[in-house]
């Protein structure tokens, strides 16, 4: 089963950033919702705007109506998305963006709940165990992008619920605390 695009994705004006402020605001909200939904469904954490535009990626190009989002319009959408806390630029030229369809704080909450529920407090876990371990196969954070996981663990560290440290052979480990 593939991602189902909303009906407004097939309307030509959707692919042109609207000049009227209220219309534009609603349009950007719709684009952000679409991008986050698409990324969540496909477990996409990072988007290279140039690659997506160049390769006519279906997220920004509707072949049926022959409409595509311009590079500039795409950056406007991501600027807005970042402003509301659902992403971060990964380069100074603003071509690559980390997409947070769940914010690091939300991932941190899910991970910490699993730690408490599974009795993993006061134990050291590797990132691999959290991302790909047998115990996490049924968790939403299974196969979570490493950068997103680290940001989420840093949130727990600031809350004094975890300590991230460098293990042997350059692997990161994390110890969770019950508070």
In short:
This protein is an alpha+beta fold.
Outline the structure in words.
With 179 residues, this protein is α+β, with helices and mostly antiparallel strands. A hairpin with a 5-residue loop joins strand 7 (162-166) and strand 8. The strands form 3 sheets. Strands 1-5-4 form a 3-stranded antiparallel sheet. The chain has helices at 21-42, 49-54, 71-83, 104-117, 127-132, 146-158, and strands spanning 46-48, 61-62, 67-68, 87-89, 96-99, 124-126, 162-166, 172-176. It folds into 2 domains: 7-99, "Winged helix" DNA-binding domain. Chain C. Domain 1 (Arc Repressor Mutant, subunit A, Orthogonal Bundle), CATH 1.10.10; 104-176, Arc Repressor Mutant, subunit A (Orthogonal Bundle). The mean pLDDT is 93. It has 6 helices and 8 strands; from the N terminus they run H-E-H-E-E-H-E-E-H-E-H-H-E-E.
Features:
179 residues, alpha+beta, Arc Repressor Mutant, subunit A, 2 domains, 3-stranded antiparallel β-sheet, 6 helices, 8 strands, 41% helix, 15% strand, elongated
Please specify the SSE layout and strand pairing:
Blueprint (H helix, E strand, L loop, with lengths): L20 H22 L3 E3 H6 L6 E2 L4 E2 L2 H13 L3 E3 L6 E4 L4 H14 L6 E3 H6 L13 H13 L3 E5 L5 E5 L3
Helix pairs in contact: 4-6
Organism: Cavenderia fasciculata
Protein name: Vacuolar protein-sorting-associated protein 25
GO molecular function: protein homodimerization activity; structural molecule activity
């Amino acid at each position: 089963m593939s991602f189902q695009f909303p009906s407004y994705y097939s309307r030509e004006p959707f692919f042109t950033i609207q000049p009227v402020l209220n219309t534009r605001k609603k349009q950007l909200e719709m684009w952000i919702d679409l991008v986050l939904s698409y990324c969540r469904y496909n477990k996409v954490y990072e988007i290279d705007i140039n690659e997506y535009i160049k390769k006519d990626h279906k997220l920004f190009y509707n072949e049926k109506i022959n409409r595509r989002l311009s590079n500039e319009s795409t950056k406007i959408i991501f600027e807005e998305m970042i402003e509301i806390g659902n992403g971060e630029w990964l380069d100074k030229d603003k071509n690559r963006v980390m997409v947070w369809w769940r914010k690091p704080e939300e991932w941190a909450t899910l991970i910490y709940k699993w730690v408490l529920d599974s009795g993993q407090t006061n134990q050291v876990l590797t990132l691999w165990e959290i991302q790909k371990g047998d115990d996490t196969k049924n968790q939403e954070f299974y196969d979570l992008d490493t950068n997103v996981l680290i940001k989420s663990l840093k949130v727990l560290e600031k809350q004094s619920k975890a300590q991230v440290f460098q293990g042997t052979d350059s692997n990161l480990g994390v110890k969770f605390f019950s508070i």
